[in-house]
Amino acid sequence: MIDLENCPHQIDYLQKSVEQFSQVVICYAQTGVKIPLDWLVPLSGMVQNGKLKIHKMSQAGKNAADFGIAFLAGCLTQQLPEQAHFILVSNDTDLDHVVSLLKSQGRSAERIGVTKKTEQQASVMASPSDQKPGSISLPSLKIYCNHLITYSKNRPAKRDTLINSIQGKFKDNPTIVMEIFNDLVTQGAVKISDTKQVSYNDQKIQQIAKSA
């Protein structure tokens, strides 16, 4: 869920966000954000298939978008499976109350703030053709494998929740999330079934975690 009023630059990463998450919800009351014309066709398809939902509050006002996010989060708890992980993208600490309420109902949730430093890191990242395989994610891959070892009894069961878990672990560097996920798969640490269920290779996870 994206608080577009508070984090307008998140629109620049919208297409990537829709690819990474099972559903993206945007809420705003008033904003001057502009969407490039060549995005209209792919984004309209995402709206039609339900992966992207954009909600504009009927009345603008202080905290209007926050109330909208709180309401929509409540609606989603009735629609999404129990293992769904909620991520609220906003620098507004008031939304921590929404996160607390979601957790009180047995839901997994967190708020991720977006700093200027994070946005600058994303903007100066080398293009895929300039990157050496594993040059960015190797230390982070070890960190996440250690995370999987620490929380071995509470691991994500689905592909999307695994990606969300990585996103939460590396919220200050969102550009490496999919690289870490892909490395977990290609190195055999995890396996994704046709139904998007995740199985874990503990021996491989231990090996990566202990690698030099």
SSE layout and pairing:
Elements: E1 2-3, H1 14-20, E2 24-28, H2 40-48, E3 52-56, H3 64-79, E4 85-89, H4 96-104, E5 108-112, H5 116-123, H6 138-150, H7 159-169, H8 177-186, E6 190-192, E7 198-200, H9 202-210
Parallel strand pairs: 1-2, 2-3, 4-5
Antiparallel strand pairs: 6-7
Helix pairs in contact: 6-9, 7-8
**Tally of structural domains:** 2
Structural class based on helices, strands and sheet pairing = alpha/beta
Q: Rg to the nearest angstrom?
A: 18 Å
Number of strands: 7
Straight-line distance between termini: 37 Å
Biggest sheet features: 3 strands, parallel
In the predicted model, the low-confidence regions spanning at least 5 consecutive residues are: 116-137
Supply the number of helical segments: 9
SSE order in H/E notation? EHEHEHEHEHHHHEEH
Q: Which range best describes the helical content: under 10%, 10-25%, 25-40%, 40-55%, 55-70% or over 70%? A: 40-55%
Overall geometry comes to: globular
Task: Give the overall pLDDT as a whole number.
Answer: 81
